[in-house]
Amino acid sequence: MRRFVPLSYLLLLLALSGLAISSCFTPGPLKADRDPDDLFAPSEADAIVVDAILYVDAPLPPIDLRRTAAPGDPYNAADAALVGAFVTIMQGETTYEYGPHPTMAGRYVPPAGAAVVEPATQYGLRVLVNDEPEVRATTLTPPRIRIDELVLLDLDDDQEEIELRQLRLFGDIGDAVYDAPENQLEHTVGFLEARIRIDGAAASYQFGVSNLENGSPLLFDSDFIDAEDRDDLEREETSRLLRLEDDGLFLSWEGINYAGRHKIRLFAVDQNWFDLVRTDNVGNERETGEAGQSFQRPLFNIENGIGLFASASVDSFGFFVRPEGAPPCTGCECWGCGDRNAWSGILDQETGSGRLRYDRHVGTGSRCELSYEIADATPVEACPTCSFAWEFELGKLTVYRDRGACAEAEDLKGETFRLAQSMDVVSDESGTSRFGLYIGAEGFWAPIETGWSLVVDTPSAHRWLFGFSGD
Hints:
By secondary structure, this protein is mainly beta. It folds into three domains: 7-140 and 269-311, no CATH class; 145-267 and 316-322, no CATH class; 331-469, no CATH class. It is built from five helices and 25 strands. The chain has helices at residues 7-21, 77-80, 170-173, 227-232, 271-278, and strands spanning 48-55, 63-67, 86-91, 94-97, 99-100, 107-109, 122-128, 135-140, 145-155, 161-166, 184-186, 191-198, 204-211, 236-238, 248-251, 260-269, 306-322, 340-348, 354-361, 367-380, 386-402, 416-429, 432-441, 444-458, 461-469. Strands 1, 2, 5, 6, 11, 13, 14, 16 and 17 form a nine-stranded mixed sheet that branches. A hairpin with a 6-residue loop joins strand 7 and strand 8. The protein is elongated, with a radius of gyration of 27 Å.
């Protein structure tokens, strides 16, 4: 999964920029059916790289042109920019002559008044540079796509799909979708299906996931992933290539990493986009079993050049996600507004092992992520309105990230916690009850206003999940 800025652009072109940055050999003239062995010819530095995606119902895009660097040469974006090219896009009998951007070398812009991109229409690209072979590519834009319904589904006891509710769409209420009760989701509870209308077929489909918050916490305990993977978690992700089934596409929870507002863009993509993604060996974790997985170079579909000249149609929807087990909440109150900090724990009630995690995000950009091993955990007598209680000490400290916000949280080793699950249900979605949380000290028990508690039973473990926002 990759960051893409704009959302679709960098996602698909990361492999292409890598060709230039890493100074890989590139053949010329480049054709999609060229023998992969030819890719390692020593004379193919300085190949032309094309970056352009046409979006249905949007203006013609700028086109970025650059050259690959020779092996061993340092890559410099300014030096790689291709200037002085004659660039045109053709659609039927109409030709649009592009001109150089006034300040961005290597970028070419369409003429004023150029028509918007039409669905199900072929566009051609020509790039002429002095006496070099003409760079050519075509794209057939996908049909226009519209999301008719967005539905939250789940499985019943017989593992049959059941519809929990329909979510509101941007076309209904605009940005109010993020506050609509129907669009408040609990992480990993149920799954979403986008039911679409498209007059024809696209080569494939992809979701682009954007978390719109600046400092919301992870939706899961990062103790379960290693430090390298944790640092790779982004607020913008992309799905694998998807196949449309019965006019529906399922959105996986994979890639939804942080709490808060999410805008999801659904791309119906052309053959060029599809071919690049499915043959991208750098990103082969996104392979879908299509032919081409073993290609030694991506499939560019550009003659006498490499890169991407592609098209897509787009629609979008939005919702709000809170952590699993958290009670219903709105906006930053789900993780704390301003100086946001929270504790969350997991305790195996059979072995007494577990961890207590602390996350803090300050508006200034300061941040803290750490956790303590739970030590000497022992069941204790619960309060009269509680179902069970545990006492434990904080053991070994692990600091994942300290950007000036950990303060006293780093000095709690040896401190004792006494916590209990309340009998009061604070939320009950999809048949899973979440309870309140109590804290005990010196023989007294008091409810934690922001606390929550949940027991998860599996054949191999009996785990207690709990958490609360700090002061």
